[in-house]
Amino acid sequence: MKIKYPLMKNNITRDDLDVLIGFLKEDDPILTQSSNVQAFEEEWSQWLRVKYSVYVNSGASANLITLAALKQLYGGGEIIVPPLTWVSDIASVLQNGFDPVFVDINPQTLCMDDKQVLNKITDKTRAVFLTHVQGFNGLTNNLLNKLKEKGIPLIEDVCESHGATFRGKKLGTYGLISNFSFYYAHHMSTIEGGMVCTDNEEIYQTIRMFRSHGMVRESTDDSLKNKYESDHPDLNPSFIFAYPAYNVRNTEIGAIIGRNQLKRLDENNEKRNKNLSLFLDGLNIKLYRKDFAMDGCSNYAFTLVLQEPDFEFRDRLEHHMRKNGIEFRRGNAGGGNQMRQPYLRGIVKYKEWEKYPEVEHIHHFGWYIGNYPDLEEEKILNLCELLNNV
Ligand SMILES: Cc1ncc(COP(=O)(O)O)c(C=O)c1O
Question: How far apart are CA 217 and CA 219, in angstroms?
Answer without folding.
Answer: 5
